[in-house]
Every structure is written in C-alpha cells, then in structure tokens.
Design goal:
The complex is a heterodimer. In chain A, 78% of the residues lie in helices and 1% in strands. Chain A is mostly helical. Chain A has a two-stranded antiparallel sheet with strand order 1-2. The radius of gyration of chain A is 20 Å and the shape is globular. A two-stranded antiparallel sheet of chain B has the order 1-2. In chain B, strand 1 (124-127) and strand 2 form a beta hairpin. By secondary structure, chain B is mainly alpha-helical. Classes of the chains: A mainly alpha, B mainly alpha. The interface between A and B is large, with 47 and 40 residues.
Chain lengths: 329, 285
C-alpha cells in the first residue's frame, strides 16, 4: 500500500517536472497549446474521479462546473477583472453543487447520474437563448493578458496543486470513507460515518476544482460558447476517467494526457475521432472495467490462472462479484 | 394559441408515451436503464430516410425500418448489455457510449446536416381551428392503437403473464421453467420496435439529425420518473405532463426553452418524488 502510494506520487511529480522543463527543450507553440489543454483535462478528470470513482456516484455532467466557471469569466471578466471573475465562477459552481448534491446524492442507482447529465444541457439551452448575457451561439470573447507560455505554467501549477490535494484527500481517512461508501453505503453509515456529509463534501471538492479549471479553460480558449456545456464535453471526461481506471486518481490523471494527445493525433481523421472515443469506452468497460490502471493486476491474475490450470471463468466471476458490490453504492 | 397547445399537446403526449413505454418496459422487466433507446429512435428515422430515398414503397420502408431497429436492439443487448447486466451503473455507461457510437456512425454515413423524410400521408385538416397534417393525426391514432396493444399484450396474453412474472421475480420465474433470457430478448426487441414506430411516425414532421435521439430519451426518462418505473398508466400521465409543459413553453414563451423545462421537471421530480408522483413522499429506493 505504502509502496503504491509513493509510486503514484512519484509519477505525478515526475510528470509535472518533465512538463515544467519541456518548454526549454521544445517550445513549439502547437505542443505547448496541447499540453495546456491536457493540464486542464487532468484537473477535470481527477476532480471527476473523486466523486464518480470514489463514492461510486457516476457523474455524467461534469461539464456543468466547467461551463459555469468558463461563463463566469466570459461574462464578468470585463467588469470584475480576471481573478475575481474566476472566483465568482468557483463560488457559483460550489453553490450549484450544493443545491444539486444535497437532494440527489442520497438517491441510489442511476438517478444521480441522470440529474447530472441533464443539468449542463439545461444551461446549454439557456446560454443559447439568453443572447444578451451569453452571446447566444457565438459565445463571448475573453481578452487574456497572459502569454501562451505564462498560461501554460499557470495551468501546470494549478494542475499539480489540485491533483496533489485530491490525491492526498483520496489517501486520507476521508478517501477511505468515500471508498467504503462505494462498497457498501449502509454498512458505512452503520459504523457511524455521516455518509451524506462525506458524499456532499466530495461533490463540492469536485465542483471547486472543476469550476476553477473551467475559468482557466475560458482563458485558454479565449472564448466561451454554449459548447462548453455539450454532452461531448462531459463524455470526454467520462471516457478519460473510465479508460484510466475509476477510483485510482493516477489512472485518470495519466489517461487525460494520453487521450488528449490521442485526440490530437486523430485530428487528421477528425470525423472518426468521436466514433473511436465511444468505441474505446465500450471496449474498455467490457474488457477492462477497472481501467488501464488495472492492466498489471489483470495480467498477473491471468498468468496465475494459467499456472494453476483453473478455468477462465474465475476472472469473470470475480469481475461480476466486484461489479455487484459496486452496484450497492 | 390555447387551441394549439391543446391539439399539439395531445399529439406529443401520444408520441412521448410510446417512446417512454419502450424505455420503461425494458427497465421494468430486465432492470436495464437503456440510454441508447433514443439512439434507436434516431436510427429508425435514418433507416426510414435511407429506405424511402432508395425508392421503396411505404409498407416496405416501414417494415424495413422496424425490422432493422429490432435487430439493432437485440444485437446491442446480446453484444454489450448482457455481459454487464448485473450492474446498473455499467449498463448506464455502456448504453450511453453505445448511443454516442451510433450517433457517430450516422454522422459518418449521412453527414451532420438535417434530413427530411417524406410524409406517409399528404394533406392536412383542421381540428379546433388548428391546422394539423394528416401525418400528425396518423401518428396520434397509431400510437393509441399500439399503447392499447401493449396493454392487451401485458395483461391479457400468456406472453404478458410471463413477462410480468419475470419482472416481479426472475429467479422464481426461472424455477418455474421460464427462460428469462429469452424474455429479455423479446422485450428488448419489443422496446426497439416501439422506438422504431415512434421514429417512423414523427420523422416526417421533425428534422432528422444524428443528435435527435437525446432529447426524446431524456423526456422519456422524465416521464418514467414522474409516472413511476414500470407503471403503464403512470407513464401515460407523465407523458401528458411533459408534453403539455413543453407545448405551453413553446407557444407561450420560447420554443428554444422547451427542453430546458422538461429537464427542470426531471430534476425536480428526482429531488422530491424519485419514486413517481403517486408514491408516498421521498424514500431512498
């Protein structure tokens, strides 16, 4: 356990240091731009993971907080200034998370997921309709005083800090309680934990980091349009999180970088990009429901099985067992 | 305006109940929350578009689109849902991903621009002073007939009794010699057929786009939450509420906010009445 802990921390630090040095080796505008986006996606996916991966409440609309953060910057940066408008976005997304989370976090099964799924769609339509405020389908332009390189370092620093904070939360007592909620909510509350409070707290933490990240996303794009609320925005985060391995922090973190580069690489075949993403998600759930982070364990188990000469069904039976467990959350 | 709301509200109540019934049926029987149900609806519209543009007659277009959608529903059940059926969450993600997958396949094959499907019936008539096309009347009538058919199937036939038995207690039904797997496949096909018929009937008066499946599926989910899962009459009442709320919004306020209203109803229902309007208060089921 401790070894694993250090390993993940090492990977996060190593990657951050590499990314910090990277511009000195190669300052191609294009690569820096992709890496800035990847930094932000890493924050989004990791903050998604603390709710969906840890408490087992699948959030299908993480774009909500990103969009709120981004639109706050878009609407308010002229009147309030950049930093204040980002803060307003953070406060708003926490507020929304509280209002939504309080009643729906206690629902079982798919209800929470569907609530989160439709919320960004409501805001999408509002953003389309109230064009005086939001600029309608053309959105709003954001003037940014930072250079590309400065923005890169800002996002990198933000990524490092937020991933570390979430990582430490996930390995603390709180993180263990969150995992316990996923395994068995009733048992967890029977031990005397205030389950509702922990779930809500995870959701608020998630909203905080995503909201701030959304503000930075607006700076990166230099533009905010209704498409920040689109289903694909949430779906991308979902795909990154699940392919990386929910509930591991390090898996989603790495897959955010991997998949951002994959999608740049696929840009040549733009029309197939979303198809490949959706297919990747289906395959990853069917073959590796615990994500790429579990590949090592999976291969090891396969080898062991072959050595013992037991049948192949064992792994699938184990899988079903673990799924059923996660279901009760 | 009031007459418009009444007439179109009735038509959309019928169409929404049909989509929601298919969705609710497979959830009630097999506990599968099928988010690709809306994609089946969209797929049927495109099948109708493709078949009618290749010059087939009306009957063959309808039959072809329904059969293709049923096959798609059954294949998706056997291929992706069945291996993960025990976990609601995994099924939710899988069907969500599958819906996106289908949407992208359609985008690649037909392009993202809207398509138009020719009407089955030309012309129109006037009801309460509101001009309604014959196609819309046809959609209303066929939907009512199919809902009655479903009610008959579930409550008056042996097949219906088996389906209800499986939905109440799968293990017990299996012990009595019922092959639950076959029932699931049958219900999945039936649910696909309902989505397909709804698609066929409304395609002529909607613009057919690859993303058209999302708003019906979310409306269907709202309806099912309002009416209570697996409750046929509740579903009809839910469809009535959603359809009229949408029509009032689009005629009295702004047509663009139609779906925002539906989604708001959904969220309110989930927050305060997660077990349906007719349940006794909030309980964490």
């Amino acid at each position: 356990m401790i070894k694993k802990y250090k390993g993940s921390l090492g990977i996060i630090t190593l990657l951050t240091v590499t990314l910090a040095i990277f511009p000195f080796i190669n300052d191609s505008f294009y690569l820096i731009s992709i890496l800035t986006l990847a930094n932000l996606y890493a924050v989004f996916v990791v903050s998604w993971d603390i709710v969906s991966g840890f408490t087992g409440k699948l959030n299908l609309g993480h774009a909500l907080f990103i969009g709120i953060g981004a639109y706050s910057v878009g609407i308010l940066h002229d009147s309030l200034g950049l930093i204040l408008s980002i803060l307003v976005g953070v406060v708003l997304s926490i507020l929304v998370a509280f209002i939504i989370g309080k009643p729906t976090m206690k629902l079982h099964g798919p209800f929470f997921s569907l609530t989160t799924m439709v919320l960004p769609l409501i805001l999408f339509q509002l953003a389309y309709t109230y064009r005086n405020l939001t600029g309608g389908e053309f959105g709003l332009n954001v003037s940014v005083p930072l250079s590309r390189m400065e923005l890169y370092y800002v996002t990198l620093a933000y990524m490092f800090i937020s991933v570390l904070i979430i990582f430490f939360i996930s390995r603390s007592r709180t993180g263990k309680i969150l995992l316990a909620i996923k395994e068995d909510e009733t048992a967890c509350s029977a031990i005397g934990n205030n389950v509702e409070r922990y779930k809500l707290m995870a959701f608020l933490i998630s909203a905080f980091f995503a909201g701030l990240g959304g503000g930075l996303l607006a700076l990166y794009l230099r533009h905010v349009g209704p498409n920040v609320f689109e289903l694909w925005q949430s779906a991308t985060i979902l795909i990154m999180g699940i392919v990386g391995g929910m509930g591991t922090i390090i898996g989603p973190f790495l897959s955010a970088y991997g998949l951002t580069f994959l999608s740049e690489w696929l840009r040549g075949t733009e029309e197939y990009q979303d198809l490949i993403y959706a297919g990747l998600l289906i395959l990853s759930i069917l073959i590796l429901p615990n994500g790429l982070a579990s590949v090592g364990a999976y291969v090891k188990r396969k080898f062991k099985e072959r050595g013992k000469g037991t049948d192949d069904n064992v792994s699938s039976r184990e899988l079903n067992e673990s799924l059923r467990k996660s279901e009760s959350g | 305006m009031v007459a418009d709301i009444i007439v179109f509200g009735a038509i959309w109540t019928a169409i929404y109940s049909m989509i929601a019934l298919g969705f609710s049926l497979i959830f009630g029987v097999a506990k599968i929350m099928n988010l690709s149900h809306g994609a089946f609806f969209m797929f049927a519209c495109y099948a109708a578009y493709y078949l009618s543009s290749s010059g087939l007659g009306l009957f063959w277009v309808a039959l072809g689109a329904i059969v293709i959608t049923i096959i798609l529903a059954i294949v998706s059940y056997l291929g992706i849902i069945k291996p993960m059926r025990n976990s609601l969450t995994q099924v939710l993600i899988l069907t969500f991903a599958f819906a996106m997958f289908l949407e992208q396949i359609i985008v690649i094959t037909f392009g993202p621009e809207p398509r138009y499907v020719p009407s089955m019936l030309e012309g129109g008539m006037s009801i309460l002073g509101v001009r309604v096309t014959h196609q819309q009347v046809l959609a209303f009538v066929i939907t009512i007939v199919l809902i009655l058919f479903l009610w008959w199937l579930l409550s008056r036939t042996n097949m219906g009794r088996i389906i209800r038995a499986v939905s109440q207690d799968r293990e017990m039904a299996s012990m009595l010699g019922i092959n639950a797997e076959k029932i699931f496949i049958f219900v999945m096909g039936l649910s696909g057929a309902f989505a397909a018929v709804a698609g066929l009937l409304v395609a002529p008066f909607l613009t057919v786009t690859p993303a058209m499946g999302w708003s019906p599926i979310l409306a269907a989910f709202t309806i099912v939450v309002l009416g209570g899962l697996g409750n046929v009459w509740g579903t009809l009442i839910g469809a009535f509420i959603v359809a009229y709320a949408e029509m009032i919004t689009s005629y009295a306020f702004n047509p663009q906010l139609k779906e925002a209203v539906t989604f708001t109803i959904m969220i309110l229902a989930l927050m305060y009445r997660p077990n349906g309007l007719f349940s006794k208060g909030v309980s964490d089921a």
